[in-house]
Amino acid sequence: MLKRESDCCSGCTWVEAAHWARLLQAKRFPFTFLGTWMGSTRSVSNLILGVFPGVYNPKLANGHDWLPRPETCWKSLTADGQSGLIEPFAKAGMCEVASNMTVKKYRFGKDQEKGDGDDRPRELVVLIPEVLDPRYGMYVWPCAVVLAQYIWFHRRLLFGKRILEIGAGVSLPGIVAAKCGAEVILSDNADFSECLDNCRRSCQMNNLSGIRVIGLTWGHVSPCLLSLAPVDFILGADVLFEPEDFEDVVSTVHYLTERNTHAQFWTTYQVRSANWSIEGLLYKWEMESTHVPLQSFEATKEQLAGSSLPGMHTIQMMVISRKKK
């Protein structure tokens, strides 16, 4: 058995590792083995947004005009009446500086029609803690609200299903799925403990004690990845952000669908360039995508779930699955 990488992972045999190594080699998988496992690491670059605590520069924010200004963090926290929620996390060491955190409230389903035979809650309120930080996964992205709306709209499909969110960050889609009765695992880059802590904060703030949080880096074969049970749905909000990461994301999803060939990858992405495409990668990895019109799940508004997001950003939704043979 392999040595455990962390407490969240169970070991796997060298036979299993060799099997996947051969697959990766045959497919020219961009995966590498984690340092604690095979002695190598993969660097992660381009993670600085140009927005840091105490500094706001729209020219460096890469178009993220929705990012909170530092001077408004504490004001918005108290204005929302959520300041008391910060104290338990600060006492528990989950938040080093409370004034660096805001709590955003997202409300789903308040306009939902009644009388459709669904006895599950018709309204859902989710609280999401955000930390002003240069790492991507510390605040809610416009795509996350759209994906969360899709999840809420199709909540009947998710009850009792096993779901994995990749690149979860503050985990809005995963939290909504869990509130709708799914068995959820949240994951983010194994090297970013702060992002994983933020996943845990979101769970605690929404009284969700049964959600696992694991380190899962796209493009890596790790014990955590190999030990995952088959999942029914994979969630990813704006994980197709950097073209250099596209194949890492697609190949990770391909591996996950090896365990359950009927699994689907639900993902939203922001249109940033007409020249960016994953069609070639989907063909290479024998997968296919289906475009989902935003109007089909009532996500065409500039303000969803009682928030200011997605704003004027152009967001697309697609479902990716294994190609039917």
Automatic annotation (TrEMBL):
Coiled coil: none annotated. Pfam families: Methyltransf_16. GO terms for biological process: epigenetic programing of male pronucleus; methylation. GO terms for molecular function: histone H3R17 methyltransferase activity. GO terms for cellular component: cytoplasm; female pronucleus; male pronucleus. Keywords: Methyltransferase, S-adenosyl-L-methionine, Transferase. InterPro entries: Methyltransf_16, SAM-dependent_MTases_sf. It comes from the Eukaryota. Belongs to the methyltransferase superfamily. METTL23 family. This is Methyltransferase 23, arginine. It comes from Laticauda laticaudata (Blue-ringed sea krait). The gene is METTL23.
